[in-house]
Design goal:
heterodimer, A: about 280 residues, Histidine-containing Protein, Chain: A, 3 domains, five-stranded mixed barrel, four-stranded mixed β-sheet, 15 strands, B: about 260 residues, ten-stranded mixed β-sheet, 5 helices, 10 strands, elongated
Chain lengths: ~280, ~260
Amino acid sequence: MKSALLTAVILLVSSSGLCAAADRPGETFHAYVDTDICSRLMLGPINEARVGCSLSTAKDGDEPVLIRLQNNMVLTVNKRKMVEKLVGQFMQATGQVKVSDGTMKLSEVSPEQAKDIPAGDPARKLIDPQTYRTDAKLYEKIRHELAMMPYTSEFDFISFSLMGTDVILTGWTVRSTNRSEAQSRVKDVEGVTSIVNNIDVLPLGHFDMQIRAGARAQLAQSLSRYFWGSGSDIKIVVKNGDIILLGTVATKEDSDLAFIRCNSVPGAFHVFNLLRVRKSSGS
Amino acid sequence: MSKKVKFNLNSMRAGMTVALLLVTMAGCSREQKPTVKKIPANAEFSGFFKSYANLKPVAGMEGAVGYAATNAQKNLHKYIACVIDPVEVYLASDADEAKLTETARAAATEYFRAALVKSVSSAYPVVDQAGPLVLRLRAAVVGVDFGGEVAAADKDADQKKGLAYSVNIGKVRVEMELLDSETGEQIAALVDKENLGNGAEIGSTQLARNVKWAAARAAFDGWALRVRDFLNASNELSPEDADKADKSYQPYSSATVAAK
């Protein structure tokens, strides 16, 4: 009798614990709703350039993601519809975050203004442009280290942002080891105190590989001056059939030509042209 | 983007995924068959290379000769992944072919292939299908011989599946080439004459588990690492390219705009 009672009590306690776990809403934090592309490229203060990038790439169909303002972590959400109309805005997000794979199960969202984030909150500090004022020498050392990575190709683009002495690595690579190599190189730069690694490793599926080869062939044919033996000024990031053009070209005409040529690559779904045009010395 | 267009894009993506799966499955079914050949007596070039004429000593690697294409369109930098064929075996010209079983071939090659995958994959991720931007790595152990009967104490638990005679890799050399997986054009090659396997024998299919065969493991690991060293050296940027890469690389960040 006693043992039966004890078993019942244990069952009740454990089942209530399970229910509590199932119902747990997770955590709530301040976030900026960005797109996958801009989140991996334009880390830094949420300024006009950043919001412009978010809005234009969202309009072209890029996936919305959340930026956790506390640490600039990029999170892919399970309920895209809940956030897609909020791209370019701030909000409070509630849900369960899985840090290991950068995903979040959203349960609630609530739009807010930047001014609603209390002073002194780490999230507020991270959206303040003053936070990003940093040592130009340290910036250059990190830039040089990343530029000299041996196994990067025209299909990789690793970017970074520096906040004081904290580094956020972003971008895309086709080699998973480049993700760790970049972190290891930056960690060894004197003066760096912490690193958040948001570099996305791209899948090497046959379909994307054909698009990569097709895009390179198109660009190397018509814009050959930007390509050299081991690399190029134009970077071609291919993800799930989409092409993202990055890097710097000399003129707007070259940028437009690259866009047109990549649009003719068989199998490519969409071309995001984020090529920068080099400013002339007179401007 | 309108809902209709989005729907069509999603349908297209789903269709492409199914097509991709079918292509992948078809690719998997055409598996490369392992090769075993015997070196003809007095042959100068004993493995799959017909000549070493274009191979030059590799700086910093004693006993190795290699080649890496420098063509601006076709060189190691232009590839981002690799398929690795089963390792080929070339028996020593005086080896007793009667002792060669499928188990012996597997014992002499599978550990080495796994070591190659481990060593190469961080430079060229290993994929299972040839295609654009994919290299094909061929490797051979050349000069494989046989030793005596494997002692009862050293045999595998399942003796029917074990080796009757030990495989001797004490005098082998390793040949390797990287080809464009679509055209078959040679992009790089390496012949490693360094005798890392001095005294090494394999008497078990469970090479990774028995200390008795540690010398063979060390030899295979050593050759695989030297293949990687060769790839690292061949992928080093020339001073001119390093300068171009340095000047070309500018991160994207709204932070740099704000900091100015």
